[in-house]
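# step 3/5: fold
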Amino acid sequence: MDCQTQPVSKGTSRFPDAQALQKMMAARLAPSFAPHEALAEALLPHVLGSSDDGSHDVSHLQRVFKVAMTLCAAENGEAEIVAAAVLLHDCVQVEKNSPLRAEASRLSAEKAGEILAALGWEPARREAATHAILTHSFSANVASETLEAKIVQDADRLDAIGFVGIARCFYTAGRMNSALYDPFDPKAEERELDDLSFALDHFETKLFKLKSGFQTAAGRDMADLRHARMKAFIEYLHEEI
């Protein structure tokens, strides 16, 4: 039988459009957000493809979700609100070096409220999720007033420290065209810290400070271990340079 090229009618494509592709990806990724697969499948299309930042991609959501569910179980938080907040906490992304960086969590909270309203979430539950999104950010510096908000903030900050945090720090420094460290004064003994220019400085300006800010008992326990891992890494790194 001869192979023939079938005509494609006007207005159609052999390839799925961006929206259809996002829905397909959401369906494949949803099981990794068990037991909230249905919620993940509904919310992920609003997040996927919004940024090319590998430190805030879907793997970040998977890690934060996993930790958040662990904290939620330990602290008796309301899991569905935590899950929704985690899935949407970066739905509006702003680059680290943008002057709007401090507004990222507010913008994400506003967009998340619209998304959850469209899904039929009642106002009180929407407010609980958007409050958690608003307050999760270190840059925003807004106090968390609910248990669920504290859980989301702790889970997100745990992904900023430890071995994953180290990897994310240097990845982001590469995106920002920063050097690894100051070759003249790696430990900043005779200069001001400058984490916009040197990745290594970011540990002192921010990452080592995070341990003191965890708000749940379970989060503090996890932070102690991850903080110790970062400290050990920096000690070995200085030996090598």
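# step 4/5: annotate
The longest helix spans residues 217-240.
# step 5/5: archive (pending)
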